[in-house]
Amino acid sequence: MSPLWDVFKDLVAKEPNSGCQPTLWRYAEARHAVLEAGEIISASDAERRVLVLENPGLKGQSRITTSLYAGLQLVLPGENAPAHRHSQSALRLVIEGDGGYTTVDGERVPMAPGDFIITPTGSWHDHGNDGSEPVIWLDGLDIPMIGLFDASFVEHHPTELQSVTRPPGDALARYGSGLLPTNHQVSGSHSPLFHYPYTRTIDALERLRGDNEIDPGAGVRFVFVNPATGGPAMPGIEAFVQGLEGKSITQRYRATDATVFSVISGQGRVHFDDRVFEWRDHDTFVVPSWCRYQLEAHNESVLFGFSDRPLQRYLGVLKEERS
Ligand code: 1HN
Question: Which ligand 1 atom is nearest residue 119's CA?
Answer without folding.
Answer: 4
